[in-house]
Amino acid sequence: xxxxxxxxxxxxxxxxxxxxxxxxxxxxxxxxxxxxxxxxxxxxxxxxxxxxxxxxxxxxxxxxxxxxxxxxxxxxxxxxxxxxxxxxxxxxxxxxxxxxxxxxxxxxxxxxxxxxxxxxxxxxxxxxxxxxxxxxxxxxxxxxxxxxxxxxxxxxxxxxxxxxxxxxxxxxxxxxxxxxxxxxxxxxxxxxxxxxxxxxxxxxxxxxxxxxxxxxxxxxxxxxxxxxxxxxxxxxxxxxxxxxxxxxxxxxxxxxxxxxxxxxxxxxxxxxxxxxxxxxxxxxxxxxxxxxxxxxxxxxxxxxxxxxxxxxxxxxxxxxxxxxxxxxxxxxxxxxxxxxxxxxxxxxxxxxxxxxxxxxxxxxxxxxxxxxxxxxxxxxxxxxxxxxxxxxxxxxxxxxxxxxxxxxxxxxxxxxxxxxxxxxxxxxxxxxxxxxxxxxxxxxxxxxxxxxxxxxxxxxxxxxxxxxxxxxxxxxxxxxxxxxxxxxxxxxxxxxxxxxxxxxxxxxxxxxxxxxxxxxxxxxxxxxxxxxxxxxxxxxxxxxxxxxxxxxxxxxxxxxxxxxxxxxxxxxxxxxxxxxxxxxxxxxxxxxxxxxxxxxxxxxxxxxxxxxxxxxxxxxxxxxxxxxxxxxxxxxxxxxxxxxxx
Length: 646
Ligand code: ADP
Ligand code: MG
Ligand code: ZN
What we know:
Rossmann fold; 53% helix; binds magnesium ion; four-stranded mixed β-sheet; Signal recognition particle alu RNA binding heterodimer, srp9/1; disordered N terminus; binds zinc ion; binds adenosine-5'-diphosphate; 5 domains
């Protein structure tokens, strides 16, 4: 009986577990299994003690007590069952229990205890052969229990192993995160996305379709199946995809490309299958594959060990997309910041043929984004977000978000209840360059070298006509830099010219040149400067056609060396051209070096003044910096009109 109950209980638990696995919201992890196991274990122990109890529910007396009770004439009947005695008393027909030795007869035992013959014959003695099942149970249980226990453990272990396999094949346990349309908390709409006007416009068409597909289908329009969002990291691709789902009020399945590819071969592909099946069941729906370049790279290059798994996953995505019925209301969105490495098969018509580019936000958009993230933060009256937007060219939406957050943290750390403009301004540098490393103390000599190095950068930047104006110089180390010169462009720009590049390179070399001139020695400090400027010079020659000698040839792909789709070693140009490139790069670099040297020599007095001031105060802001250079006859670049407010 007890055994049966146990069995029923455990199968029930098993079923529950299976159900949990199937559902796509992960519910029971290993903890649940452990709990079930403990419950069953306790149950076994409890049932065992129930069996044990059932034997001893009557009060137990010793044989000597029995003997004296018989002598006193209190007992009416004794039933012998194996070694167990059931004693019935005359008074109230009470039953008691006792044990005797197995081998000896009861009557003999009682006589040995001194019970008189007469009294003994007054008691009815009945001998029963013990009930088969009961004896069986009592005797076998001590052996059976461990077996059952081990069996249960084994059963659980195999279940778990099977579970792990199943997990790989179902979304159940894992990966796709689903946002249902009725989930108001997670709902994102276009109003949460600032800027990105073109992208929003393009995507509102998709929203329209998802809301009202009939209108489009009736007129025979083919609905796009795949939309590829392209843009730098942090520009809000993921956010926009969510917003489309939010606007259209449809289910949103999101998975990242790297999650497709996991330990087991074939898992990526079956994940894709599962995901699409699930989405079709829930249609209308959006499937969002984030960072699709993780699976969608050009196939068959052999670079990186020829990842079969990835190829299968990609193939499965393509197969699924081709298998869509025209009226299936599932749209696949994908995001990448490397559209250049994507497999062309992904991009052909009928797949991700809609491409939406999301640019880094411009000044106005940055202000909008800041406003969105400012909604939940208490600000002091003096906060001016447009100044902040002005000072953050090149920041992505994610950067701006973290800027706001850093400012709030700063304010909280200083026990203020409102975020001040000062907090926000300080956070710009933190986001750009990493936190200040106040503990990184420079020695007196290092401080001097760093001050001259940065002064050199700043001075070259101020003298050259096409370099960006200097906003701040600092010799407090931040992130990996010992000191830094912050220069910001006068306006957002999409295009850069050769003249600007050349001045940029000269400005990068300003630190190196200064160290060499002043201290007659070079430290490891400028190594990053050299790397950056050499790379820029190389790009000018090989990518942008900015060298007269090489001419208008793009010798290298947009993403650096052409790597995907070709072997590693194939060069697309001859040794001769290669030598020409090197010569041109050297020429650009040495001309820039000369330019920087001339400036430092001519304005040596200004350099000394800036460096001295830097050693003294460690940070020089734009206003103060410009006062110094004006005193030495250098005219600062045109001021931004809102600069005064900050
Ligand atoms: P991506 O996927 O392009 O790398 P995300 O969509 O993950 O970028 O953006 C990261 C965060 O940055 C968002 O959660 C949001 O807080 C913020 N963000 C980015 N772009 C915008 C924007 N245009 N408007 C508002 N917030 C933005
Ligand atoms: Mg993203
Ligand atoms: Zn430098």
